[in-house]
């Protein structure tokens, strides 16, 4: 490439900067200032796209994976059961769900302290869906400059069909997203069949419409507004950052003073740094910031500006890394520290919570028994002269198979049981059973005796004995 052609390119770039909005100088806090994101290719862009397709594919496919006679992941709110493959979480086991959320939170804290906002830049649903919408926008309306020009043109057939096609694609993606999300709470086959045959309930139509509108608005129209103005994570990330956290950073010492020049020109002779002030790092940024102004909370660490700058450095024949994943200490020439108290603290808590969750998941009781006393009458003397207490037993079968349970009581001398002592409970069902226990008053040494109700069954798969007990009291006075 000749020096003249390079000068023409830079002259053209300067003309474009005069006539087109400069995101780095515009008021990016004004929601009315639209950001036109320029397409870019590079290592980090490819990684982000692949992770995006993996996470989106996982989201779309998961509700369709079968597990026995149900789907593998199903949050059954109607029956208050959360099915996650072979694990069923009942309301009594919601501490497991709390532990899972705690693990997710500390994993986010740990990763953010070490690698910065890589969650936002690579796997956040807002980022994934935004870039999917931008991809359709580029395919139907053209590259950045064409989209800007198209928006300035008066309405004609070309503009009408392109805008209509884009919004149709956005709505289709939003509808698919909404129906998939609802499928985590209502069986997926029911959702798709009933929605398209107009047989779904009003509740399903409401939630599908709501999430369709939310996806369409967030990824299509609001985009960076969500990250800059509405996402709380952008606000409290500074609490987790330190000078050894990896950020997308601009090497000011190497890049300044900025200025355009031909490829063959020696920047040192011109008194310039390596930054040619092409503004591509701004044009590819999904939140419209200029990373050369230093660390900003709007930066989501997506790495798009790194790819743009590396491509420019390649064309100019300069060393890559003017913008890179780095740390504040490294930029200041200070030795980095990987292990520091905050990172170690997050890691220890994360590891401990994972161990607690694994142990709690592995030791979930397959049976739960609740005992409710008759509070209207603590005890009574029956026709045989025995002291009788009345209870209501609730047996919860938390397994995926029906079981027969044997009931007994411990802590009493010879007693009589009034009611069935062997019952069958279907998978995932709760059996409510009223019973009475009677004892000869001669056998009772205290007015109140601690007793334990016991439920036992045999696991048909490996003949393992499963049992559960619940404490109660027997009154005689």
Automatic annotation (TrEMBL):
Keyword Phosphoprotein: no
Domain 4Fe-4S ferredoxin-type positions: 266-294
InterPro entries: 4Fe4S_Fe-S-bd (IPR017896), 4Fe4S_Fe_S_CS (IPR017900), Cyt_c_oxidase_cbb3_FixG (IPR014116), Electron_Trans/Redox (IPR051684), FixG_C (IPR032879), Ig-like_fold (IPR013783)
Gene3D superfamilies documented for this protein: Immunoglobulins
Coiled coil: none
Alphabetized Pfam families for the sequence: Fer4_18 (PF13746), Fer4_5 (PF12801), FixG_C (PF11614)
Protein name per the record: Cytochrome c oxidase accessory protein CcoG
SUPFAM superfamilies, per database record: 4Fe-4S ferredoxins
Assigned keywords, A-Z: 4Fe-4S, Electron transport, Iron, Iron-sulfur, Membrane, Metal-binding, Transmembrane, Transmembrane helix, Transport
TM ranges: 51-67, 94-115, 168-186, 192-216, 343-362
Key word Transmembrane present: yes
PANTHER family hit by this protein: FERREDOXIN-TYPE PROTEIN NAPH
């Amino acid at each position: 490439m000749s020096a003249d052609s390079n000068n023409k390119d830079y002259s053209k770039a300067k003309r474009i900067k005069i006539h087109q909005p400069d995101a780095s100088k515009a008021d990016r806090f004004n929601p009315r200032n639209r950001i036109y994101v320029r397409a870019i290719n590079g290592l980090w862009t490819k990684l982000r796209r692949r992770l995006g397709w993996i996470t989106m594919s996982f989201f779309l496919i998961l509700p369709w994976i079968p597990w026995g006679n149900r789907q593998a992941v199903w949050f059954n709110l109607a029956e208050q059961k959360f099915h996650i493959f072979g694990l069923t979480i009942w309301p009594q086991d919601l501490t497991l769900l709390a532990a899972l959320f705690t693990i997710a939170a500390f994993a986010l804290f740990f990763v953010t302290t070490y690698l910065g906002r890589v969650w936002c830049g690579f796997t956040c649903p807002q980022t994934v869906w935004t870039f999917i919408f931008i991809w359709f926008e580029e395919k139907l309306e053209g590259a950045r400059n064409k989209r800007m020009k198209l928006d300035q043109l008066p309405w004609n057939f070309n503009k009408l069909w392109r805008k209509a096609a884009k919004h149709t694609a956005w709505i289709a993606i939003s509808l698919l997203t909404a129906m998939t999300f609802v499928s985590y709470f209502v069986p997926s086959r029911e959702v798709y069949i009933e929605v398209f045959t107009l047989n779904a309930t009003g509740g399903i139509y409401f939630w599908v419409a709501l999430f369709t509108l939310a996806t369409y608005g967030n990824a299509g129209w609001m985009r960076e507004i969500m990250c800059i103005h509405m996402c709380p994570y952008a606000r409290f990330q500074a609490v987790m950052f330190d000078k050894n956290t990896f950020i997308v950073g601009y090497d000011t010492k190497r890049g300044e003073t900025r200025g355009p020049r031909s490829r063959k020109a020696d920047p040192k002779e011109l008194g310039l740094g390596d930054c040619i002030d092409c503004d591509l790092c701004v044009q590819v940024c999904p939140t419209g910031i200029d990373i050369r102004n230093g660390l900003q909370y709007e930066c989501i660490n997506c790495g798009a500006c790194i790819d743009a700058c590396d491509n420019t450095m390649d064309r100019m024949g300069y060393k890559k890394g003017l913008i890179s994943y780095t740390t504040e200490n490294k930029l200041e020439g200070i030795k980095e520290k990987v292990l520091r108290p905050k990172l170690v603290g997050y890691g220890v808590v994360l590891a401990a919570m994972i161990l607690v969750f694994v142990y709690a998941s592995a030791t979930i009781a397959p049976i739960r028994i609740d005992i409710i006393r008759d509070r209207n009458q603590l005890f009574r003397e029956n026709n045989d002269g025995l002291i009788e207490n009345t209870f209501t037993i609730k047996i919860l079968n938390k397994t995926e198979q029906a079981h027969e349970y044997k009931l007994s009581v411990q802590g009493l001398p010879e007693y009589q049981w009034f009611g069935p002592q062997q019952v069958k409970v279907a998978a995932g069902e709760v059996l409510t059973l009223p019973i009475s226990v009677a004892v000869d008053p001669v056998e009772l040494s205290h007015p109140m005796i601690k007793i334990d109700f016991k439920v036992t069954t045999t696991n048909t798969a490996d003949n393992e004995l499963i049992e559960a007990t619940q404490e109660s009291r027997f009154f005689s006075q």
